[in-house]
Amino acid sequence: MPSSTSVSDFVRNSLDDLKEMSTLNQIVIGGSAGLATGYVLSRVGKMAAFTLGSSMIMLQLAQHMGYIEIKWGKKSSKLRDLKKKALKAAEETGLIETPGQNEKLNKVLKEAKNFVQDNITIALSFGGGILVGFSF
User: Fold this and answer.
1) Neighbours of 124 (CB within 10 A)
2) How far is CA 132 from CA 3, 23, 42, 120, in A?
3) Which pTM value belongs to this model?
4) How is this protein annotated for GO cellular component (predicted)?
5) Diameter over CA atoms, the chain
6) Distance between CA 130 and CA 136 in Å, rounded?
7) Please, what is the end-to-end C-alpha distance for the chain in angstroms?
């Protein structure tokens, strides 16, 4: 299994090779990658929205027909306890920002900004491709 440094080196080398290609090639590659990404994300998003929506409708229908009874008073206090536990677990695992993570985030954002500035053709064609992919 490749290490994370070899994967990052591969990505970096591929992007460097892409920078050396003609503008037309950069637009075609960026647009194609964006189109594929947008298409997949729109399909996954639609599927997730359908699943969540139909589940909510089925729960409401089951409650209305008397198959289940939801006692909201008890649920709200349990949800507050669950929220506290989830926040605590997120802090312990590092999912919630700490000062050190904020520095990492700023570094990643700076690198992304530099990438977009250095590769404006690829970035714009990728963004356009995502929008076109969402439309399918």
Assistant:
1) 16
2) 34, 20, 10, 18
3) 0.50
4) mitochondrial outer membrane
5) 66
6) 10
7) 35
In tens, the pLDDT along 28-45 reads 888 888 888 888 888 888
C-alpha distances (whole Å) from 34 to each of 16, 71, 103 are 19, 46, 29
pLDDT digits (tens, 9 = 90+) for 61-104: 887 788 887 676 666 677 677 777 777 777 777 666 655 666 77
Amino acid letter for position 47:
M
Whether the CB-CB separation of 77 and 84 falls below 8 Å is answered with no
Q: With bands split at pLDDT 50, 70 and 90, how would you rate the model's confidence at 5?
A: low
Asked if residue 87 lies in contact with residue 78, where contact means CB atoms within 8 angstroms, the answer is no
Of 126, 113, 118, 131, nearest in space to 27 by CA: 126
Within 10 A of 29 (CB to CB), how many other CB atoms are there? 17
Is the model more confident about 109 or about 102? 109
Are 27 and 121 within 8 A, CB to CB? Answer: yes
